[in-house]
């Protein structure tokens, strides 16, 4: 069994920022009170110094409509190549003002918004995390897999994973 290490404050925000911005694409889940809930892949624009996660989204999207009905969302990140995972539950806030759009705009988003940052359909979504949990390995996937294999041969765990709650 791996280690547990809960992080708080700056350490938690640093870990959240590292994982979310490195993995970049998450499954963005809305309408959580219904089964099955709605989910779609979304690309993170930024994790700010307060631990908020920012996305660009279409004002006419189902996601924006569902957030207006229920602001609770869940973000699921996975990077199998390095055994890093992140689960975030929080509240979503939608922004339509030009200054927020200007601040969070990424030129790649023009593929979805033909008029660029001036497209009237552009909105920005901020996720304020209420609960964050992470899984990581201390030494990377290859070493972790080797330790697991050796542990199986020896009959004792050599797991170097680490997991815990991030209080941001």
Automatic annotation (TrEMBL):
What this protein is called in its record is: General stress protein 26
Q: What is the lineage of its organism?
A: Bacteria, Pseudomonadati, Bacteroidota, Flavobacteriia, Flavobacteriales
* Segments crossing the lipid bilayer: none
Q: Which InterPro entries match?
A: Split_barrel_FMN-bd, Stress-Dev_Protein, YdaG_split_barrel_FMN-bd
Tree of life domain: Bacteria
Q: Where is the General stress protein FMN-binding split barrel domain?
A: 11-158
């Amino acid at each position: 069994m791996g280690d547990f290490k809960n992080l708080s404050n700056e350490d938690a925000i640093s870990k959240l920022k590292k994982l979310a911005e490195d993995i970049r694409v998450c499954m963005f889940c809305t309408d959580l009170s219904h089964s099955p809930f709605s989910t779609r892949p979304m690309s993170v624009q930024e994790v700010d110094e307060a631990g908020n996660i920012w996305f660009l989204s279409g004002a006419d999207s189902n996601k924006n409509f569902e957030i207006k009905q229920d602001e609770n969302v869940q973000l699921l990140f996975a990077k199998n190549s390095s055994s890093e995972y992140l689960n975030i539950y929080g509240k979503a806030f939608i922004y339509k003002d030009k200054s927020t759009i200007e601040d969070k705009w990424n030129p790649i988003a023009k593929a979805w918004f033909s008029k660029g940052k001036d497209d009237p359909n552009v909105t920005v979504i901020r996720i304020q995390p209420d609960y964050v949990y992470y899984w990581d390995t201390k030494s990377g996937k290859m070493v972790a897999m080797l330790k697991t294999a050796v542990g199986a041969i020896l009959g004792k765990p050599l797991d170097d994973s680490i997991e815990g709650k991030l209080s941001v």
